[in-house]
Write a structure and sequence with these properties.
Helices cover 82% and strands 0% of the residues. The protein is mostly helical and 259 residues long. The chain starts with a helix and ends with a helix. The mean pLDDT is 87.
């Protein structure tokens, strides 16, 4: 094909047809430019397709993380509700209710002492940010939702740190001074495992009676109700946002399915 064009150009120059040669030369340049533009367009289309495939991969993984997050949040909401119920149960005895069932009282006090910090599933988001690929997420609703979720998570971490401090000062330190933890832990383990572990050991009424006279410990259980309630409100806010982001991801992925 190249030899063919060269032959035409040579014949035009040989016969002295300058005007036709110039017209031909211009047309040849136009063809070359068009060829380059087509090649660039094809290359750009391939690159866009490659980037879109990466984005879809991330979106699918983000959706998986968010679904795991929702399941974990549901679990923590349930656990926190049980802790709130336990703290309210204990507070009734600080307010003067007669202490009759030591096992039940020990169970609910220990239920407050044992708590865990929430850790969200955000491996894909961390990969996006650490690799500088967050810009691959073209949907602003999804991107902003993920950033807002991180902000809520940081807010939750601050609340957990606040309760950790309150628990150490108001619950752990004063209770360690008046309670023998060895029988309490054995008794609690026995109750939560339905007798499969631990020991159904007798507890000291005198120790708990002393505890019920401590205003500091009472305030610890008051703060447990307040701060676990705050955490649950944050959990529910995070859960709602996770659901919104998943809906946005599903809509974004549907565009590829429809093609």
């Amino acid at each position: 094909m190249i030899k063919f064009f060269r032959k035409i150009r040579f014949d035009l120059m040989k016969t002295g047809k300058t005007a036709k040669y110039l017209t031909y030369a211009f047309g040849e340049i136009v063809l070359v430019v068009i060829g380059i533009l087509i090649a660039l367009q094809i290359n750009n289309a391939n690159e866009d397709r490659k980037l879109r495939n990466q984005e879809v991969h991330y979106l699918i993984n983000l959706k998986t993380d968010l679904q795991l997050n929702i399941a974990e949040l549901d679990k923590y909401i349930t656990v926190r509700n049980s802790r709130i119920a336990s703290a309210n149960y204990v507070l009734e005895y600080f307010e003067g209710k007669p202490l009759t069932d030591l096992n039940a009282f020990a169970f609910h006090t220990t239920n407050i002492y044992i708590w865990q910090k929430f850790t969200q599933h955000d491996n894909t988001f961390q990969e996006l940010t650490n690799s500088g690929n967050l810009a691959l997420i073209s949907n602003d609703t999804i991107k902003n939702g993920l950033l807002n979720l991180q902000a809520l998570y940081k807010k939750l971490k601050n609340e957990e740190e606040h309760f950790r401090y309150d628990a150490e000062v108001l619950l752990y330190e004063p209770s360690y001074a008046v309670l023998d933890l060895n029988p309490i832990v054995k008794n609690y383990t026995y109750q939560v495992t339905d007798g499969k572990a631990g020991e159904n050991i007798a507890l000291s009424r005198a120790n708990y009676e002393t505890m019920l006279q401590d205003l500091k410990q009472k305030n610890g259980f008051v703060m447990a109700v307040y701060e676990f309630s705050m955490m649950n409100a944050q959990f529910n806010e995070m859960k709602a946002l996770c659901t919104e982001i998943i809906t946005a991801i599903d809509m974004e992925l549907s565009f590829d399915t429809a093609k």
